[in-house]
Write a structure and sequence with these properties.
Length: 236
């Protein structure tokens, strides 16, 4: 998915937005009871949570190749991470609004058929057909249907700092991502790690989650802001 041309700083956020659409991501509070593994918790999440809204913080990490050890690499990456934050709402399958509020305002919105990317500063809207792009992408975990086993190989990845992690490997070779890590704590989906083929890591953490809220039918209907330029394209 391509975004409108603009200033380099804005395009950096645009790429983050693309990662979240092809990527995109969110966390939901489920029933608080014990689960056997991170994989079980994910499957419970997908089965029970049909819609949600909340807040997110996104950090884009680039691990330095000259780090002495893994701890130094992580510390360096975190200290230089590009950070953005905002809100989200979604209704599976395929409908979502992902709003970046800081450091720049940008909105990714899907009505289930089309994807709209609105850059407020550039006053531009890019419209694309959603097509089947969600199927084998990390976004399918949050916004797609229940066929995770069809598109990913799931395996438990142990416990770290009280969080149960699992790893998902895309079965499709035509993807920008090597793997997706998902962390749960006591039935709550807390974080996602998106590892792309270039060695970059996008870390998402979530808060103030409301699961299965009542959403009006018009929630995901996109209305182009007055005066905004429209750029249209084909299927993603």
């Amino acid at each position: 998915m391509q975004f409108p041309a603009g200033q380099q700083t804005r395009m950096t956020l645009g790429r983050a937005g693309r990662a979240l659409f092809v990527a995109l991501g969110a966390s939901l509070v489920m029933a608080s009871h014990a689960y056997a593994s991170g994989t079980d918790q994910l499957k419970q999440f997908v089965a029970q949570v049909h819609a949600a809204r909340g807040n997110f913080v996104q950090r884009e990490l680039k691990t330095p190749s000259n780090a002495k050890n893994a701890s130094d690499a992580i510390a360096t990456a975190m200290s230089s991470a590009k950070t953005s934050s905002g809100t989200f709402v979604f209704a599976r399958p395929g409908k979502f609004i992902w709003n970046y509020e800081k450091p720049y305002q940008q909105q990714l919105q899907s009505d289930g058929e089309n994807l709209y990317v609105y850059d407020k500063d550039l006053n531009q809207v890019t419209e694309r057909k959603l097509g089947g792009a969600l199927g084998a992408s990390p976004a399918a975990i949050l916004f797609g249907s229940n066929d995770l086993d069809k598109n990913f190989t799931l395996s438990d990845a142990g416990v770290k700092n009280g969080v149960d992690w699992l790893e998902l490997i895309p079965k499709s070779k035509d993807t920008q991502f090597k793997s997706v890590g998902i962390g749960f704590r006591d039935g709550n989906l807390e974080a996602m790690e998106l590892h792309d083929v270039f060695g970059n890591v996008t870390l998402l953490t979530f808060s103030n989650i409301e699961k299965n809220p009542s959403l009006p039918a018009s929630t995901f209907k996109f209305v182009r802001p007055k005066g905004a330029d429209l750029i249209t394209g084909g299927e993603n």
